[in-house]
Design brief:
This protein is α/β, with parallel strands linked by helices. The protein has two domains: 9-161 and 301-333, Rossmann fold, CATH 3.40.50; 164-298 and 352-363, Phosphofructokinase domain (Rossmann fold), CATH 3.40.50.460. Helices cover 34% and strands 19% of the residues. It has eleven helices and 15 strands. It has helices spanning 22-35, 48-51, 106-115, 127-138, 163-184, 199-207, 222-230, 271-283, 303-321, 341-345, 356-363, and strands at residues 9-14, 39-43, 61-63, 91-94, 100-103, 120-125, 142-147, 187-192, 212-214, 240-245, 257-259, 267-268, 287-291, 327-332, 335-340. The strands form four sheets. The chain has a seven-stranded mixed sheet, sandwiched between helices. A four-stranded parallel sheet has the order 9-10-8-13, with helices on both faces. The structure holds 6-O-phosphono-beta-D-fructofuranose. The site of 6-O-phosphono-beta-D-fructofuranose has 12 residues, from strand 12. Residues 17, 84, 126, 149-151, 193-195, 246, 267-268 line the site of 6-O-phosphono-beta-D-fructofuranose.
């Protein structure tokens, strides 16, 4: 920290699943921070660069210069790397009995920030990463959060970057699936990401003319989905597209989990295949599954995502410059504003079942399985 309590050295990191636009945020943070006279370092792989520096040839921290961030605005992924393992607040640790348990190591992490003379952190992440950022802010580090997730499930911001890119790609995939589904008179079940919130399934399902959309917020009855598909031939349609969010679950049933691991969220998978398997005998048509999964996270951010990423990155540095901490940059059109991290991490932004987009879907004859 410089004299008068002014910050000198800002760190930036990216945590959780990647999202198109991360690199654009990194560039905006670095360029605007350098412009204002700060130094910027990047922490590799979430907090791993600080938690286990011995694993990195460069010690886990990289000095970010203008040259390091040149030409990265349009690139997917993150030049800093990311991880959704090893949450410092729930760090997988071996106990004296040889059993693994989750340990809070955020005090150790605070010491690392201190030792590396890092005065402030710009944390790019979703609910998990912003929760960690909030803990660090409460322990005295100056922290600004930047909302990231293709799922768009973060509260208090109209949108997160990466979402528009994911929805655009998913819609394009649906456009491509109509012709093959029609040619074979099949039911194509398309599974997309969306752990707690069905925004991707909903927005791309409506834009790409799906016949049914199953989201976590509206538990489905497979018989209702079948009933809806049975009506299609009467309208001259002999195929169907069923959109399924990975977190969709049947009424009274559970989310489809592949595996559970310490220190990270459950790995989801199989929601689409479950729907296809149960639907096939009910509709008497071949049901095939396409999982878009991580394809939704790749590729170049759309112009919309690039612009909000650049706006968020520059706004994060302005926030630090104005002495703010413990807040997240949020889009509140036509402006960006700052909201306390406490408010963001206390609830998720899920799809309200009576929202206009759902009503629109129903008006267009789309089934939500209820
Ligand atoms: O949080 C975003 C997300 O895309 C979720 O929808 C999904 O469950 C998760 O990331 C999967 O992440 P990974 O496969 O990288 O563990």
């Amino acid at each position: 920290m410089g004299h008068n309590g002014k910050i000198k050295r800002i760190a930036i990191n990216t945590g959780g699943g990647d999202a198109p636009g991360l690199n654009a945020v990194i560039r905006a943070v670095v360029v605007s921070a350098l412009h204002k006279g700060y130094e910027v370092v990047g922490i590799r792989d979430g907090y791993n660069g600080l938690m286990k520096p011995e694993e990195y040839p460069d010690g886990g921290l990289v000095t970010l210069t203008r040259g390091k961030v040149r030409g990265i605005t349009h690139l997917g992924g993150t030049i800093l790397g990311t991880t959704n393992k090893g949450n410092p607040a729930r760090y997988p640790t071996m106990g004296p009995d040889g059993k693994m348990f989750e340990k809070d190591r955020t005090d150790d992490l605070m010491k690392e920030f201190h030792e590396h003379k890092i005065d402030a952190l710009v944390a790019l992440g979703g609910d998990g990463s912003l929760g960690i950022a909030n803990i660090l802010a409460k322990k005295g580090l100056r922290v600004i959060g930047v909302p990231k997730t293709i799922d768009n499930d973060l509260d208090k911001t109209v949108i997160t970057f990466g979402f528009d890119t994911a929805v655009s790609f998913s819609t394009e995939c649906l456009d491509r699936l109509h012709s093959t589904a029609s040619a074979h008179q099949r039911v194509m079940v398309v599974e997309v990401m969306g752990r707690y919130a069905g925004w991707i399934a909903l927005n791309s399902g409506i834009s790409g003319n799906a016949d049914a959309i199953l989201i976590p917020e509206i538990p489905y009855d497979i018989k209702k989905v079948a009933e809806a598909l049975h009506k299609l031939p009467k309208r001259g349609k002999h195929y169907a597209i069923v959109m399924v969010a990975e977190g969709a679950k049947p009424v009274g049933g559970e989310v489809s989990v592949v595996s559970k691991e310490l220190g990270r969220a459950d790995k989801l998978g199989g929601a689409g295949e479950r729907v296809a398997r149960e639907l096939e005998p009910l509709v008497g048509k071949e049901c095939r599954t396409v999982v878009l999964g991580h394809l939704l996270r790749g590729g170049s951010p759309t112009t919309f995502d690039r612009l909000i990423s650049l706006r968020f990155g520059a706004a994060a540095v302005r926030a630090l410059d104005e002495g703010k901490s413990g807040v997240m940059v949020a889009l509140d059109p036509p402006t960006v504003r700052y909201v306390p991290l406490d408010e963001v991490t206390s609830r998720m932004k899920t799809v309200p079942p009576a929202c206009d987009t759902i009503v629109t879907g129903r008006d267009l004859g789309i089934s939500f399985g209820d």
